[in-house]
Structure prediction request, 472 residues.
Amino acid sequence: MNELITQINDAIWGYVLIGVLVACGLWFTWKTKGVQFRMIGEMFRLLTDSATSGTNDLTDKNARHKHISSFQAFAVSVATRVGTGNLAGVATAVAIGGPGAIFWMWIIALLGAATAFIESTLAQLFKQRRKDSFIGGPAYYILKGLHCKWLSVLFAILMTITFGLSYNSIQSNTICGAMQEAFGWDPMVVGMALSAMALIIVFGGIHRIANVSAVLVPLMAIGYFILAVVIVIMNIHLLPHVLKVIVTNAFGFEQSIGSALGATIMTGVKRGLFSNEAGEGSAPNVAATATVSHPVKQGLIQALGVFTDTLLVCSCTAFVILISGLYNVPELNGIALTQAALNSEIGSFGPIFIAIAIFLFAFSSIIGNYYYGEANIRFMTSNLIVLTIYRILSAGVLVMFGALASLEIVWNLGDFCMALLTACNLVAIIALGQYAFRLLDDYRQQKRNGIKEPTFHRSQLPEIENDLVCWD
Prediction:
């Protein structure tokens, strides 16, 4: 069964999805005039303003509602991005695709940031108001923008299965593997503890998830980044060699057979997408919950999240692994490779630190993944029984399944679900991208006119004005 899923994954990724992802990234980069590069200063300004003020762009009309700030939405989305993909996923990419896979992870991030901008801007544009917050995502912009009910429901189902169920088993599997490697703890016991903790948090809703993520994400990212930078500085003389190894392997200059280059590219793109989620349709679900005065604001902040994930955190892991020289050891893969690399650089403290870090990274991803599924469950039905069943499956059953399943099974299932989900979302954002382009032009024009905080009103898009109920 596992071998069959692997063959299907290779067919989907090798012949279809990689080309479409790259083509979309290039198209959106061109149409937005390189928004992910030209407006990076504005991204940091928006994130900083939101982090210091706590909330942003609030109006008297909206004061009755509980608000998710841009920073909190950014934190939740980064919580799902910064996780096993950065520690175990990068190690898996290097072990299977070689050092060159890191180069293709960088490429997919640079192009994918434009795709992330488009999907999150659309999520803000077509968001809907709930009793105590906003809600939205691809299911909503497919329904309201494309008026295609069956496709929106299909996306909601795929999103719930991929993130709320499949991805949570990957996170749990990695946590248990790290704990077993570092402390010798039984995966079943760790899985039971994870399930109990996740259930307590997910029954608290998005606001509790946002609050937890806003604390955990900065702490875990800064701590891990500092450690990795220290290791790189200690081995700075090896950095030119590391970069050379990455580039030469990326183009097959050190490969003996032609198929090895294809495996390198495929692995890099798959692990890159799993890590930064650009184009997958996940981050828009939480991007839609933020209270902003213009949809472009959240699009810019979510594009920054892609850079934070892949160019910063993933690169840290890659450099540590390559500096250690252990990437050629056949027995090492996944989180065990990352732990072994740190062990070789800083001693026995390394595996223990990674076990703690992966717990924080992956556990925040579990609760963030859960929310993505909940948002899409609520899109399909308001039945509380269905939601309760989903909560038990996501935070309980699948977390426990991941604790007991093999690394190969959980990653193969995750890749298969990711491929279907991404294909569905790309169809939608290609069709609706014109609205994001127009919104970006409007935002830039307002900034040129000296307006520090651009605003949007639904009358600015008269042809879809009736579908933009949150933008009065």
Observations:
- The longest helix spans residues 407-448.
